[in-house]
Amino acid sequence: MPVDHTKSANDKAQLSEKTFNDDPTVQTRHKRSIDWQEIRLSGEDDGSVPIYDDCDDIRRKIRKLQRTQGFRISYWLRHIGGIKYNSWSRFMKAQGPDSGAENGIYYAAYIYFEKVRIVEGKIKTPRREQNELAHPRGFVIMDLLETQRTTSWRCADRS
C-alpha cells in the first residue's frame, strides 16, 4: 500500500498554531540573522566614532578574517566602504600601532569589527577596555611617523 504524504487539515492547523517562541532553534536563527550592516554606531553618520583598537590590532583581525573559508578580500572591501585594494595592501604592509592610521581602511575596518562584535554579543577585550580608559575619545586617526617626516620647519631669516 502506498504511503500518503499529504498533510491533513489537522496537521496544517497544528503547524500554523506553532508560534515563533515555541521553537528555540528558530529563536537562535532569528537572533543571528541580524546583519552587521543593520547596526548603527553613535557618530557613524558623521565619521566621529571613537576608535579603541590600534592599527596592529586591526591588521591582526583582518588576517584572522582572511583565514575564514569563503572569504574574499575584494568583496569585503567593497562592503565596508568601497575601499580600494591598493589602500588595503598599503595598510597591511605597514608596521606599528599607528602606522596606517590615516588610511581609510583603518576606520572602515574598525567600524566593521565593532559591529560584528555587537551582533555576535561578544564582550570587550581587556585590552580594549584599557584603551578606552587611556584614550577616552579614541585613538587619533593619523600616522605620527608619516606626519613627522613630511613636516618641515622654516626658520626666520636673521639678516
TrEMBL record:
Polar residues bias spans: 11-27
Top-level taxon: Eukaryota
DUF7726 domain ranges (all copies): 49-122
Coiled coil: none
Region (Disordered): 1-27
Biased composition (Basic and acidic residues): 1-10
Pfam families: DUF7726
Protein name stated in the entry: DUF7726 domain-containing protein
Organism field: Fomitopsis schrenkii
